[in-house]
Amino acid sequence: MLSVRVGTGCSTARTSNRAPEGRKLGYAIGMAYQLKCVCGTCHLCRARRRSYERYHKDPEWAVAKLAANRKWRERVTDDWRERERERNRRRIRDPRKKKCQNRLQSAVRRRKIIRGLCEVCGSPQVEGHHEDYDKPYEVRWLCRKHHRELS
Question: How many structural domains comprise the chain?
Answer without folding.
Answer: 3
